[in-house]
Write a structure and sequence with these properties.
Length: about 180
Amino acid sequence: MDELGPAVDAYPSWHPLVRNHDSRSPVTWPSRECGYTGLDHTQCFAHGFVTCPYDDGQAVLDSVEKLAYKHPAATIKAEKLKVKLYSASATPILVKCHWARTLPMDKLIPLSVAMPLLLEKEVPCWEWAQLAETWESMRPYFLGEPRGARSSLFVSQETGQYIKKVWEALIYSGMFGPIKV
């Protein structure tokens, strides 16, 4: 947990671990939809996840290598762990997000990293969007789970407030269409 952060229930849709997918349907959990194969008995943490398939785990390692997610903000790497977790016949695989910038002591993703990732993911949606989603409907996708009104285990209250302000400026611009109520 010192390295990967706290256990989480879902990632923000802009997080490097889940962002490699079709933007029309946000994904918040590592799956085939975002390029992973062979996952089984997966536990997610803020900056990585451990999965324990009942084979040698090569499918997971290959899928992470195939993703080749290299971005100015982070890279994704996978490795076999030399411990037994979940079951003696399972192979634990660690998939980790290596952030380009050192995270602060609290391990929360700073605004200077979170905002560009969110904007890269969401702004292109203006091309096909018919309705703008409000902060309330997008909050789970932008903050991850568990979360509060403007913060989560990924971003601070201050970062969450700025994300909310920017999102509201975008939807009120009309770029996504009328606001869904």
